[in-house]
Amino acid sequence: MEEEIHAGIVKYYETGMLLQEISDKKMYLHRGYKSFSEYCQKTFNFGRAYGYRLIAYCNVWNLLHDEAKDKIPERVIRSLSVVKETEDRQKIWDSLRENSSGELPTSEEVEQAVKGWREEKCLIEAHFDPNDNTSIFCHALKCKLQTEDLVQDLIKKSDGKYRSLLLAIKELLNNHKLDPKKHDFDSLKETLLELQKRQVDHLFSGEEVK
Predict the structure, then answer these.
(1) Do residues 115 and 144 both lie within one domain?
(2) Disulfide engineering: 16 pairs with which of 54, 112, 163, 181, CB 3.0-4.6 Å?
(3) Which long-range CB contacts under 8 A does 161-167 form with residues at least 24 apart?
């Protein structure tokens, strides 16, 4: 198995299958390595992340129904690995194939399709109604916010997490949902600074950083 991986005579999905078996059966222990990560680095000179990426590619490739899947490069379907449900994965791929006039879609097109699917999934899971004017959906927090008291709801649903609040504020500013004439920016700034200070204190105290 190692000789085939080293020689590069197998395709991406076959390499992924071999690595999957080595990882699942902990065959790296026979080489004296304590982890799959160390094994990949020392044996094949690539990191664990790349090894798992090949395994993910193998899993996606095996479940795709496509007559031309032998020609699919690893980078093209890399984004599909985050789609856990086989049915959803296939729907995304079939839609892309239909819109590409029989050609293989690009990795960028697959990535955008997966992004769109994830955003739609978030809206469905949050039971968000786009026609409801009393709330807006925040992708950073993956929830809806009440427009009537947007700042306080934003602070509350960020749950004391500095990065979550910062990303949510950036998203709402970019989408023109936050307005200094309508909303209490001072409260937002004050909360951000407080959470940032807490994060720095946690960093040097050895506590978990949120």
Answers:
(1) no
(2) 54
(3) 161/195, 161/210, 162/192, 162/195, 162/196, 162/198, 162/199, 162/210, 163/210, 164/140, 165/191, 165/192, 165/195, 166/192, 167/140
